From TrEMBL:
Ranges for domain Protein YjdM C-terminal: 51-117
SUPFAM superfamilies reported in the protein's UniProt record: Prokaryotic SH3-related domain, Zinc beta-ribbon
InterPro entries: YjdM, YjdM_C, YjdM_N
Family per record: Belongs to the YjdM family.
The name this protein goes by in its record: Protein YjdM
NCBIfam families: phnA
Chain ranges of the Protein YjdM N-terminal domain: 9-37
Length: 118
């Protein structure tokens, strides 16, 4: 019989996924694509940015979201229509905490309260 000598890896500090793996000197979460160093402890998790969508689902960099409300663009007559799909978002600090690029409109910032994760 073969003994299973697997070491218990830490859960992802961002999404709490148990499916983390080691890549060199980093831990990687395949669910939210978050990477952190082995030296990082749970004390560092206070520094991480926590952003939730309109339904309370945790968002992460690289997620795909959908706009749940028509959004007027300041200084323009354009509108981001309900149901607009936005790929590869980036989370940032501030009131408008999602940085993204919308096809046909360009780079813009959105509030997480007006989007839902796909």
């Amino acid at each position: 019989m073969e003994k299973n000598i697997m070491t218990k890896l830490p859960n992802c500090p961002k999404c709490n996924s148990e499916y983390t793996y080691e890549d060199g000197n980093l831990f990687v979460c395949p669910e939210c694509a978050y990477e952190w160093s082995m030296e990082a402890t749970e004390d560092d998790s206070d520094d991480s940015l926590i952003v939730k969508d309109a339904n309370g689902t945790l968002l992460a960099d690289g997620d795909t979201i959908t706009v749940i409300k028509d959004l007027k663009i300041k200084g323009s007559s354009s509108v981001v229509k309900i149901g607009t799909k936005v790929k590869n978002i980036r989370l940032v600090e501030g009131d408008h905490n999602i940085d993204c690029r919308i096809d046909g409109i360009g780079a813009m910032k959105l509030k997480s309260e007006f989007v839902k994760k796909i």
